[in-house]
Design brief:
By secondary structure, the protein is α+β, with helices and mostly antiparallel strands.
Length: 437
């Protein structure tokens, strides 16, 4: 399928000035005007939850989960029915999958399970089954070590978790967080007996937000050596001091750690102020949306956020998380997140190309554009051409009378005429546009 790696940048040599926020904002008169306040975004999130079944209000959920509901969650992930391969490109056997299913430990689930509460102490992977070993649907994917079919998503550091179940080998918990559920390694979770303690932390009004693409936060603990925690864009960290200075030299932070028995222990430390973090959410402006998005240029495409890259929808989620939005994880759910028809619209199947261009003219920078299974962000129009930024795996080029599929596997700027695998320009596959406001 993929002829070579990194072919997109060879096929499309865009000028460097397109990587600058100032270029896209040059003719936007309201670029730094606040679109929604923090209170309005909070209201947006509250309105969204009843509409999207994959968004959860964890603090208000029951303390007990029934056998039926829990098994339904776990069994919503099905073992593959077609040939799958390991990292070496070897075909996996039925016995391999039987062992994985055994580790789900379904036999011990009771009629009612008491829910436990925890927090992620670092960025971690959410898996569809309790196993770390990747599986791939093709030998090509095993070669590039991407598209691990057991990888669902990444879980940010310092997220509240509902803990439902433990694997047979006791190395995994089946958990739910605000927009997903799946298996997370027990070593990445700290458990608390106090539900209130967790939600007081995650819902506190004084916090820092990571606004760099990714950073290693160095937290100085007076009782031990410094602790380094890798945090991606959008990570939220509670602070204990707020001296209301516009640029304090340091912040006193409170952060979760895991005791030797797996229990949640909050520690205090000092973190230096830097360009990687901001107090509270970033102001929700068009300038800031594009500025955050462009920080991901050349970031590897990473199915399910397994490593340090982004897939299409996690890219959108991370950018909007900086402003306080709690969006669903996957592209189809994000597409269903609009309820203000004044700011969102549908591309109809019978739309002419002229109709589609006309709708593009209504968009403002930062809008999310959807096609089936993919989401992109609109940047703007330059020399009568529309541009967007997205994390995408492939595209095609015309070769004689046919089309050759090529690899991208990165976050990059492209035109809306980028050819898809079928040879159609991607604009002809757009299904909707959403402006989150």
């Amino acid at each position: 399928m993929y002829k070579d790696l990194n072919m997109y940048k060879s096929d499309y040599k865009l000028p460097d000035f397109m990587n600058l926020t100032s270029f896209w904002m040059n003719d936007i008169t309201d670029a730094k005007q606040v679109i929604l306040s923090d209170d309005a975004i909070h209201k947006f999130n509250l309105n969204l939850k009843p509409m999207i079944t994959s968004l959860y209000n964890l603090a208000n959920e029951d303390d007990i989960i029934s056998f039926t509901t829990l098994t339904k969650y776990i069994q919503s992930y099905e073992l593959p029915k077609k040939d799958m391969y390991n990292s070496n490109g070897d075909l996996l056997t039925d016995d391999y999958f039987k062992e994985i299913f055994h580790n789900t430990n379904l036999d011990v689930i009771k009629k009612c399970t008491q829910i436990r509460y925890g927090m992620s102490i670092r960025k971690t992977s959410v898996r569809s089954f309790p196993i770390e070993t990747p599986i791939f649907s093709s030998i090509e994917h095993s070669i590039i070590n991407n598209f691990d079919r057991f990888q669902e998503t990444g879980c940010f550091a310092f997220e509240a978790l509902l803990i439902y179940h433990e694997s047979f080998d006791k190395k995994w918990y089946f958990v739910k967080f605000y927009n997903y559920f799946g298996w997370i390694k027990t070593e990445d979770i700290a458990i608390s007996e106090d539900k209130k303690q967790i939600f007081d932390y995650t819902q506190g009004k004084d916090f820092l937000r990571v606004i760099s693409k990714e950073t290693n936060l160095s937290i100085n603990d007076k009782n031990s050596s410094p602790i380094t925690i890798k945090c991606g864009m959008g990570t939220r960290l509670c602070i204990l001091n707020n001296n209301h200075s516009s640029s304090p030299e340091n912040y006193i932070v409170k952060f979760p750690t895991r005791g030797s028995d797996g229990s949640l222990i909050f520690k205090e430390g000092i973190i230096s102020n830097s360009d990687d973090i901001t107090y509270g959410n970033l102001p929700y402006t068009r300038y800031n949306i594009i500025d955050q998005a462009l920080k991901f240029i050349d970031t590897p495409y990473d199915w399910g956020d397994k490593f340090s890259g982004k897939d299409c929808s996690s890219f959108i989620l991370a950018v909007y998380k900086c402003f306080g939005f709690s969006l669903p994880r996957n592209a189809d759910q994000q597409e269903n997140s609009f309820f203000n028809t004044d700011n969102s619209f549908i591309f109809n199947k019978d739309d002419t190309l002229k109709d589609r261009y006309s709708k593009m003219d209504k968009l403002k920078p930062g809008a999310a554009i959807f096609q089936q299974g993919h989401v992109m962000m609109y940047l703007g129009k330059y020399n009568d051409t529309y541009y967007m930024i997205h994390s995408f795996s492939g595209y095609s080029v015309k070769k004689d009378s046919s089309y050759e599929t090529r690899n991208a596997l990165l976050v990059a700027i492209s035109t809306i005429e980028l050819l898809t695998a079928s040879g159609l320009p991607i604009i002809q596959k757009f299904t909707s546009c959403v402006q989150f406001q």
